[in-house]
Amino acid sequence: MEQSGDEELIEKSKAGEMAAFKMLVTRHEGQVAGVIRSLLGSTPEAEDVGQEVFIRFYDSLKKFRGESKLSTYLVRIAINLSLNELKKRKRMNSRYTSIDAAEGIKGIEDTLDLKEHLQYAFETLDPEFRAVATLRLVEGYSTEETAGILEIPIGTALSRLARAQQKLRLSLTKKLRP
Amino acid sequence: MNDHFSEHEELLLRSWDAPVSARERETLAGVMQNNPALRQQSDQYQKIRTMLLRTEPDSFGPFFAERIMNMIKHRTQEIDYLIFFFFKKYQVVLLGVLVALLVSNMLLTDQLTVKGILGVEQDTTESIFSIDVYENLTK
Fold first, then answer.
1. CA–CA gap between residue A140 and residue A10 (Å, rounded)
2. Whole-angstrom Cα distance, residue A146 to residue A48?
């Protein structure tokens, strides 16, 4: 079964072969995990969202017509669910983050190394910038694929990408100096 | 924080993510040669991109697929249980409705036979006779 293509595994899953569905999960877990964890960080919610992606796929298996590649389809669900989670998180943070806590974060920022600082800066990007940057810069999708997954024009993807990179660079300027 | 792009900074970034014309490439090469600030920015951007790019596949940890399969299995069992629970909870009501329907059938048909209670249409002399007539006509 490991040699089977996605289409074949999908057909078998539709017929109720659970081993085929499990193989699809194993095959696409990495990609889905990469996207979600780039957007949400390594948090417990990240795995919850990952599970939700595959459960939704299982529920819509009968309707899946294969118009787009399975990986694209799953990544699209992952992005949408992650963005929803970020919105939820933003609402929670705006309710509970006090000025003192924000000061505390600033203090922590000074102790981070370059990679951690970049990770921190990445997580503070606006969700729409983060989504584009995740697909293009972290996961290595082409600009066209990125725009396709997010269902936005290529020009919009390019401008968001440039803006995200500029924000990252400006936030890391001190640390990036040779 | 300066949020505005210089024209060349924008071109530099675009050249990594989309095709640029030969003329734009030439312009960029010229500017890069004469503009140390842009060269430094280019190095910084490259460093960020290198650090961000995933080199190893990510994972949700061991047995993720097994957890998904368990969730699906348990969910199906839960649905089965909900259906069972629904019937269990309302079994008295459902039984009452069933008995009421049977009694009403019995009263309406005015017959104390099983067919009458179940509301199954009874064979009447007319219906048997009409079938016979039809059969004779077709012979």
1. 26
2. 24
Judged by DSSP in three states, B124 sits in coil
CA distance B53 to chain A (A): 4
How many residues would you count in chain A? 178
Higher pLDDT, B122 or B77: B77
Query: CA-CA distance, A162 to A168, in Å (whole number)?
Result: 10
Please state whether the predicted TM-score (pTM) of the whole model is above 0.80. Answer: no
Residue of A128, A140, A129 lying closest to A170 (CA atoms): A129
The answer to whether A64 touches A10, Cβ cutoff 8 Å, is yes
Distance CA B115, CA B1 (A): 89
The ipTM estimated for the assembled molecules is 0.80
**Shortest alpha-carbon distance between residue A47 and chain B (Å):** 6
Tell me the residues of chain A between 134 and 163 that have a Cβ less than 8 Å away from chain B: 136-140, 143, 154, 158, 161-162
Contact present, A140 and B57 (Cβ < 8 Å): no
Through-space distance between the first and last CA atoms of chain A, rounded to whole angstroms: 51
